Amino acid sequence: VRHLVIVLGDQLDEQSSALQGFDAQQDVVWMAEVAEESTHVWSAKQRIAVFLSAMRHFAQHLQAQGLPLVYTRLDDADNLGTLQLELGRAIKQLQPAALVMTAPGDWRVLQALRAAAAEHQLPLELRDDTHFFSTVREFAAHAQGRKQLRLEYWYRALRQQHGILMEGGEPVGGQWNFDVDNRESFGKAGPQNVPAPTRFAPDAITTDVLALVNRRFAGHPGTLHSFGWPVTREQALRALNAFITERLPLFGKYEDAMWQGEAWLYHSHLSCALNLKLLQAREVVQAAEDAHRVGLAPIASVEGFIRQILGWREYVRGIYWTQMPDYLERNALDAQADLPAWYWTGNTDMACLKDAIGQTLEHGYAHHIQRLMVTGLYALLLGVRPQAVHSWYLSVYVDAVEWVELPNTLGMGQFGDGGLMASKPYVASGKYIQRMGNHCKGCRYDPALSTGEAACPYTTLYWDFLMRHETLLKKNPRMAMQLKNLSRLDEAARAAIRGQAEAHRQGQTLK
Ligand code: FAD
Ligand code: SF4
After folding, report:
1. For the domain 136-323, what is the CATH code?
2. CATH for 341-510 (2.60.40.4070, 1.10.4160.10, 1.20.1250.20, 1.10.579.10)
3. Pairing of strands 166-167, 124-127
4. Banded model confidence at residue 179, pLDDT cuts 50, 70, 90
5. What pLDDT digit, counting tens, does each position of 223-246 carry?
6. Which of 60, 84, 135, 174 is the most exposed place for a label (fewest CB within 10 A)?
7. 439 lines ligand 2 (CB under 6 A)
8. 31 close to ligand 2 (CB < 6 Angstrom)
9. Are 316 and 404 within 8 A, CB to CB?
10. Tell me, what's the pLDDT at 148?
């Protein structure tokens, strides 16, 4: 064997760089399902199932194309349980001259594969991951010499470089950013006629996987009864097309809105397909740009959507790879609390959290504002250790892979990197959640109150957070408004809030 070509569970694309120049006469593809990938964090059943099913479908596709493939199944009796050990075994059996792969998304996985290559004294050829618009080298060059990293500059540079939403050197629509148009709520009437999400009934392969996951990972979080994620490229393309025609037009307007019992709204639900590489970021961005060109979707929606993929997705990847491995340990606010146990069950009387966690466990999905401003915000205000928060997010979402999850959680959500990723901590009181949806109406707490029996824990903890970090936050001009409001509280009010926050905290840790 000339090349043993490593294909990981999130590299499921026959166009990927690792497979370029593949010669079926002398090369072999290697794929392995190993328990470690589902147990290094307490991975939710939906997440395990989506990876295994997509891997098995991709393996079938490669075999149908006549590519020689060595594939270890999770339920193989002699499965060694880790990528490193399984790769070692394949190396011994096949005696390749070299290992080839597309650069993996995760730092941990890269170390494990490098260790296997070194142990067997084999060269490991890492090829650029062409699913992204940018390389990590380009990001590093952009970041060099900048005191602060900001999404906006990186995003604009990529728009110009790749000519996306550009017209004669100017941004289409006359401005780079339509964020202010993208913050509407559904008002009193709530969402009307939201198109049904594109879901896929399990085929034979998926049905097998669901049974396997239920058997093997019975104690893991979540349920599988609603499983409907795209697990093939063909399904992912159908989901993309449906999103572009049915949801994109209203995506921007309702990007930040929430509604009790409505998990899907106008979001694309494509993150998982993108992260597994069933879809190319370029084709998703292209499809959205085309929709604007033919008058199917307004610029505010299209720009907002493209900013998430061309902007944020590329930005967090750059942050991850330029900051690892130290990034994992960062804790700028010295937050030390444990994650409340009910994050794994949704068993809380806070209506917004119950809904967000409930649907997360049911579908492996929550949209961005639920992640940032409901589950993320509560953990931030409570002062949970960022590493515990990180483990939770990496476990529960079908789209969770560390390169994208970690900067979003530790950086954007928890301010654990002290402002590298986001210019200020995303903190708000319960009033923000009230404004963006209807959860507060059905809640035993009142977002306007910070003390007393009915005080909303978000509101109490918000003021408490500002007090606890006042000295640090004073250095940040973007926090001036919030600190000005804090300065209006007299000492008695402050003491009452502190007491209430402490009592709430005790209640959470006793559970
Ligand atoms: P849409 O709202 O339709 O957005 C379109 C696409 O843009 C997404 O599919 C995604 O690929 C991309 N995108 C949007 N926001 C971001 C972002 N902040 N960073 C990177 N890409 C983005 N995204 C993941 O893919 N995996 C994760 O593990 C993950 N963890 C997160 C943890 C926290 C605490 C937060 C605040 C965000 C996280 N995100 C993560 C980003 C974002 O919330 C999800 O990508 C999005 O909710 C997925 O749903 P969607 O496909 O319907 O997205
Ligand atoms: Fe959430 Fe507070 Fe509103 Fe209840 S009152 S739904 S806890 S924000």
Report:
1. 1.25.40.80
2. 1.10.579.10
3. unpaired
4. confident
5. 999 999 999 999 999 999 999 999
6. 174
7. yes
8. no
9. yes
10. 78
Q: Which atom of ligand 2 is nearest to the CA of 430?
A: 8
Q: Quick: pLDDT tens for 20-61.
A: 999 999 999 999 999 999 899 999 999 999 999 999 999 999
pLDDT for 146: 85
pTM of the entire structure?
0.97
Count Cβ atoms within 10 A of the Cβ of residue 463 and give its class: 0-12 exposed, 13-18 middle, 19 or more buried.
Answer: buried
- Domain parsing of the chain, residue ranges: 3-127, 136-323, 341-510
Centre of ligand 1 from the C-alpha of residue 48, in Å: 18
- How many other C-beta atoms are found inside a 10 Å radius of the C-beta of residue 221? 22
Q: Cα(84)–Cα(67) distance, rounded to whole angstroms?
A: 23
Instruction: Identify the CA nearest to 72 among candidates 151, 145, 6, 17.
Output: 6
Q: Per-residue pLDDT for 476 more than 80?
A: yes
Interface confidence, given as ipTM, is 0.99
**Binding site membership of 432 for ligand 2 (Cβ less than 6 Å):** no
CATH class of residue range 3-127: alpha beta
Single-letter residue type at 506: Q
> Which tokens sit at 174?
């006359």
In this structure, what token pair is assigned to residue 428?
């708000």
Q: What is the pLDDT of residues 136-177, one digit of tens each?
A: 999 999 999 887 788 999 999 999 999 999 999 999 999 999
Q: In one letter, which amino acid is 329?
A: E
Give the DSSP letter of residue 427: -
Q: How far apart are CA 446 and CA 109, in angstroms?
A: 45
Based on the number of CB atoms within 10 Å of its own CB, is 138 exposed (0-12), middle (13-18) or buried (19 or more)?
middle
In the chain, what percentage of residues exceed pLDDT 70? 99
Tokens, residue 313: 């997705």
- Supply the DSSP string of 395-425, one letter for each residue: HH-TT--HHHHHIIIIIIIT-TTTTSSSSS-
Q: Which of 259, 350, 353 to mutate to test the pocket of ligand 2 (most atoms within 8 A of CB)?
A: 350
